[in-house]
Amino acid sequence: MVKQKNKISLLLIFALAIGALWAFNNPSEKYFEITKNLDIFATLYKEVNTYYVDEVDPNQLIKTGINAMLRSLDPYTNYIPEDDIEDYRTMTTGQYGGIGALIGTRNGKNMIIMPYEGFPAHESGLKIGDEIVQVDDVRVKDKAYSDISKLLRGQANSSLRILVKRYGTPELIEIQMNREKITINNVQYFGLVDEGIGYIKLSDFTTNAGKEVKKAVGALKEQGATNFILDLRGNPGGLLNEAVNVSNIFIPKGSEVVSTKGKMTDWNKTYKALNPTVDSEMPLVVLVSSSSASASEIVAGVVQDYDRGVLVGQKTFGKGLVQATRPLTYNSQLKITTAKYYIPSGRCIQAIDYSHRNDDGSVGKVPDSLKVTFKTRNGRKVYDGGGVDPDIGIKLEYLTPIVMSLISKGLFFDYATEYYYHHSTIASSGDFMLTDAEYHEFIDWLADKDYDYTTRVESSIDDLIKQAKKEQYYEDIDQQIQSLKAKVMHNKDSDLQKFKDDIKQILEEEISSRYYLRKGVIETSFRSDESIAAAIEVLKDSNRYRQILQGN
């Protein structure tokens, strides 16, 4: 009996030893593979640097290698070199030292696209459409606007001199100003869009997003708002804790907002609403679009999972991944995906499965067959693996080819600038509309402008002709194709009338921006915004609002 016990003990010890050895060897093998491949990479780089036919930039070559490696994981895991740290901080905090203006390129000219109200660019008199010619002693004609942005940024209270060319003024205008600490607001706009209906446009989730939304809700309540629209369309997300803070405004203290789960189990965490709610009862509509992502989807998902409000718009982007930054040597950083997040119903809305790639390296969306059904607090069915579905879907309006051409050629932009310098005032941004006579003035102005374009149908016919010739069918269907081509051939003059409403709306928004800046664009867009119209409609119909939240 003792011998049998000894045998069993020896077997157990042997099994434990083998297990321990296996547990030890597995990491060792992995570390060996890492060391081996790093050695190969270093040797390879040395050979390339020594023998490649042209001179090699070591920083650029290594950065390209790092970026290619990280791209094989997912689009959100990124290397941030020391030179880009300030831009990353701006993106996450919304703060930088500068003049407070958006700049861009129009027809090869570097221009002021939008000065932010209350900051140096606006206070010093810079206007939309001003062409930047020189910053301090640097001529910027052939520079990329990203390089000009770096020239405009700097320490708060440092001075700079800008030379601009302005429409209607033959001489260059010199403007002196001091840089300031610029904080870009997350809430771009708030106001009443109808009687008793407050509207809040939230564009980002950088620092203080929750405080800004809370402040906007309080101000709108004082103005008489009893219903709210929170617009998250186009919001790419940002800080996780700010998604929690914004959600907390509409749900009670202690409610679960989101949980994160990843390989590092010590980092797994459940985030709950920590503060008393601002209002957990007022009727609420959240506007979403296909570019509402990450933190936006957390807020939208929380509102839907708790049946706290109605979602209007399009299916959201489907980013259910969490990133954290890790410090690297030489003041660089790694932004790395560390976990997936799960909203209160238990679903993860990540749409693309980066962990399973095709043979060619491409990735696909989670198939419908693998999506799991979850339920909201009231028992409504919701699904994981593909973004957040709206309760009221709004068809996405695509820009017509003529509108896209006028935008890409900068013709809306240029005409709005000229209009501004020929009209000292216009009606308020909510009331401003071009008359038919003014629209015809715009058409006359376009007469000598180049804005030719190819419609999608024309492009498809051209593809058909190429394929027919390739397969030697063209002679058989030549007459039919030419007849079809004649019928669909676009005419710019007729398109200017056919798509008059679309063209007028965009032109009115562009003109309104010259007088009222960002506020003007937003308020002028209200009258043609189908999502806002649908939100107002459902908020005014309390029975329908309740039925949607009850799953009826």
Main pleated sheet: 6 strands, mixed
How many β-strand runs? 21
Architecture of the largest domain in CATH? Alpha-Beta Complex
Q: Structurally, how many domains make up the residues?
A: 5
User: What is the global morphology?
Assistant: globular
What Rg do the Cα atoms give?
29 Å
- CATH topological fold name of the largest domain: 2-enoyl-CoA Hydratase, Chain A, domain 1
Quaternary state of the chains: single chain
What count of helical segments does DSSP give?
17
Low-confidence stretches: 1-24
Q: Taking all residues together, what is the mean pLDDT? A: 91
Going by CATH, the homologous superfamily of the largest domain would be 2-enoyl-CoA Hydratase, Chain A, domain 1
Percent in helix: 40-55%
Write up what this structure looks like.
This protein is an alpha+beta fold. The chain folds into five domains: 36-71, no CATH class; 95-183, PDZ domain (Pdz3 Domain); 187-396, Alpha-Beta Complex (2-enoyl-CoA Hydratase, Chain A, domain 1), CATH 3.90.226; 401-453 and 490-538, no CATH class; 456-488. Helices cover 42% and strands 19% of the residues. The chain is built from 17 helices and 21 strands. It has helices spanning 2-51, 58-71, 85-93, 120-123, 145-152, 209-222, 240-248, 295-305, 401-408, 411-422, 436-446, 456-470, 474-488, 492-498, 500-525, 530-540, 542-549, and strands at 78-80, 95-98, 101-106, 109-115, 131-135, 138-139, 159-165, 173-178, 180-183, 187-194, 197-202, 227-231, 256-261, 269-272, 284-288, 310-313, 321-327, 333-342, 373-375, 381-383, 392-393. The protein has a six-stranded mixed sheet with strand order 10-11-12-15-16-21, sandwiched between helices. Strands 1, 13, 14, 17 and 18 form a five-stranded antiparallel sheet that branches. A four-stranded antiparallel sheet has the order 6-5-7-8, covered by helices on one side. Helix 6 (209-222) packs parallel to helix 7 (240-248), helix 7 (240-248) packs parallel to helix 8 (295-305) and helix 12 packs antiparallel against helix 13 (474-488). The radius of gyration is 29 Å and the shape is globular. The termini are far apart. Mean pLDDT is 91; it is low at 1-24.
